[in-house]
Amino acid sequence: MSLFDLIRLDGKRALVTGAGCGIGKGCAVELAHAGADLILNDRPGSDELAKTAEEIRALGRKCWTVEADVFSAAGCELLVRQAIELAGTIDILVSNPAYGKRCGFLEFPADEFDKVIDATFKSGFRISQAVARHMVEREISGKILFVSSVVGEMPFERNGPYGSAKAALNQLTRSIAVELFPHRINVNAIAPGWIDTPTERKTFTKEVIEARGPTLPWGRIGTPSDIGRAAAFLVSEAADYITGVVLPVDGGFRFKDMRADDEPQEADPL
After folding, report:
1. Is residue 265 part of a domain?
2. Percentage helix, strand, coil, to 5, in the chain?
3. pLDDT per residue over 15-41, tens digit each?
4. Is 195 within 8 Å of 222 (Cβ atoms)?
């Protein structure tokens, strides 16, 4: 079988959370390009969810939508239950819930801390557990993919709870992968770097993004499609022998300050 055949996702049904825009949408569209049918989730009242669904259907794929607040336990349960009812099964999960709050450690509000942990870590646990139970019950050798972040490794100032939640998600990825060995369910994560999403556009001005993007190792910030293409690979049969991995997809962002031209020049040796 050729590599092209192994990367195809024809006949697979994939649940993607946060699929209205940004990284979630990028993953959903690229999985659809690879042949998967999609169950898309976004928050209740999302204006973007229907638009993403139309794009998926325009590619010739089946597509269902589920509005559910996955920041809550009840929302996670509702999402997975309705996804199975609509699509009949789930072969692939791309778990993408997250909430970030930039604030200094000494001033970080307790309620915001709880929201970051609930949304970024607990939601991933709850959704993946429900989907994994479905896969085990149906004897599906499925794929579970978390969207993590390079901040799970990089201690950025004013980002402590979010980075900690992503670090916990990375460890969860590895732990679940081990437990699901007997069921041949691949469990991996992608750690995006700086990605051009609506959230980043709200955080940073257009001028900041246009000025700093070219200074990165790849000469630009990443796109949701960059993450989506990596996701399509990791949930395909081409990645059958990959599990328990956290894959950075960051264009070298983690090492942006490691280049020799950024360091003082060494004195000539004696």
Report:
1. no
2. 50, 15, 35
3. 999 999 999 999 999 999 999 999 999
4. yes
The amino acid present at 31, given as its one-letter code, is L
Q: Does residue 266 fall inside a structural domain?
A: no
Q: Is 99 assigned a catalytic role? A: no
How many domains, in total, are found in the chain?
1
Bridge partners, 95 (sequence order): 146
In this structure, the number of other CB atoms found within 10 A of the CB of residue 259 comes to: 10
Q: What does the pLDDT read at residue 39?
A: 98
Q: Out of 71, 121, 146, 162, which one is annotated catalytic?
A: 162
List C-alpha distances in Å: 114 to 73, 110, 117: 14, 6, 5
Residues 6+ apart with CB under 8 A from 212: 221
Owning domain of residue 123: 3-249
Backbone angles phi, psi at 222, to 5 degrees: -80, 170
Q: What CATH number corresponds to the domain at position 48?
A: 3.40.50.720
Element spanning 14, H or E: strand 13-16
State how far the Cα of 112 lies from the Cα of 180, in Å rounded to an integer: 33
Q: Per the domain annotation, does 157 fall within a domain?
A: yes
Four-point Cα dihedral 78, 83, 88, 91, nearest 10: -120
